[in-house]
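We close this part of the discussion by returning to an individual protein. Part of our work consisted of pairing the sequence of a single chain with a tokenised description of its backbone. The amino acid sequence and the backbone structure tokens for this protein are reproduced below.
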Amino acid sequence: MDIKLAEALLRRKELAEKLNILRHFKDNHAFYEVRGQRVKVTEGLEDINVNYPKLEASQVTAEFDYVAKQLRLVDALIQQANWTTVLSVDPMVMEAYSKA
């Protein structure tokens, strides 16, 4: 599959943003904990409230690893283009400022 450099740059930005979102979920262990609370209702009777996580750590970790790999691959392609592409420019573009 051939893509333009601009598409690769946009994809890299998209993947970096997604990775930051996934990192938030991956690093926040509160999303995966089973939390319970016992409340005494009357003598000898208790109410138990339990919250189960909707996500498993393995789900988020697997997606995080997949997106991180995609980001590394697209970044490597961009770096390859960076090192192998030669641009024709006006020499003035590369000159330092000098007072006339």
Summary: The longest strand covers residues 35-42. The mean pLDDT is 86.
